[in-house]
Specification:
Strands 1-2 form a two-stranded antiparallel sheet. The protein is elongated and about 105 Å long. The protein has helices at about 1-15, 35-55, 60-65, 75-80, 85-100, 105-110, 120-125, 135-145, 165-175, 210-220, and strands at about 180-190, 195-205. About 10% of the residues are buried. The chain folds into three domains: about 1-80, no CATH class; about 85-145, no CATH class; about 165-220, no CATH class. The longest helix is centred in the first third of the chain and has 22 residues, at about 35-55. Helix 2 (about 35-55) packs across helix 3 (about 60-65) and helix 5 (about 85-100) packs antiparallel against helix 6. By secondary structure, it is mainly alpha-helical.
Length: about 230
């Protein structure tokens, strides 16, 4: 809003004086003395407005600082302002510090999304300890779906406790030989709550999971009201 006011002020002064912009091909020494005074008066008003907008009650201090430096010299900017590499390293250091203090992996990914698109994967992996390619991909996806650094709350997962009878009914259905088949090699060990370990042969499912669920629902609907009623 302040910058809009500055340009508006400059445009109003130019329109009031009814002058045009001095063309680069028209040397300053070739214009008349009256035109020079007009440009000087407009420039003075514009500079005073900019100084007052940027540093209220400190206009003279800011103006003295500007006059001490050559604003058209590239070396004057590079002497104080940090280079691009320095800014990049500073950003990575800040993100690394924030990730170390993050309480969980989800928040660390959200913090990493701030700079995930500004650097390559190799740069991030080498600069931030513990970061993997998968984390960089997830952080970039987060920045695209939401916005870089946007803190999205974790989704609520609601689990309904199922009775042992219903669980047993489902396990017995999917364990039928029409849906699973023993393999000729390998075993699987199952540890019970009592500490006992059961060694079972490995099996493979011969039906696609989605098809198996549909068959189970159809089976429950067929026997509904007789000996079993599904809670789905």
């Amino acid at each position: 809003m302040r910058y809009f006011f500055i340009f508006q002020l400059l445009d109003r002064n130019c329109n009031t004086e009814n002058i045009t912009v001095l063309h680069p091909t028209n040397p300053w020494d070739s214009v008349s003395r009256t035109t020079r005074r007009t440009y000087k008066r407009i420039a003075t008003k514009a500079i005073e407005g900019i100084l007052s907008c940027l540093a209220p009650q400190q206009e003279q201090t800011l103006w003295n600082y500007i006059r001490q430096r050559d604003i058209y010299s590239e070396s004057s900017d590079s002497s104080e302002s940090p280079s691009r590499d320095e800014k990049s390293n500073c950003d990575i250091d800040m993100i690394n510090s924030a990730m170390l203090s993050a309480p969980n992996k989800r928040i660390r990914t959200q913090i990493l999304s701030v700079i995930a698109h500004k650097h390559s994967k190799s740069e991030l992996i080498s600069a931030i300890p513990g970061v993997t390619k998968w984390q960089v991909d997830v952080a970039r996806e987060h920045a695209i779906k939401h916005s870089p650094g946007d803190m999205v709350p974790a989704p609520k997962i609601i689990r309904n406790r199922m009775s042992m009878d219903k669980a047993t009914h489902f396990i017995n259905f999917i364990s039928q030989r029409q849906f699973v088949q023993d393999v000729a090699y390998g075993t699987t060990k199952i540890k019970l709550k009592s500490g006992e370990k059961l060694e079972l042969p490995k099996v493979i499912r011969t039906v696609v999971l989605g098809r198996l669920i549909k068959l189970y629902l159809a089976y429950c609907m067929y026997w509904q009201g007789i000996d079993y009623k599904p809670s789905i």
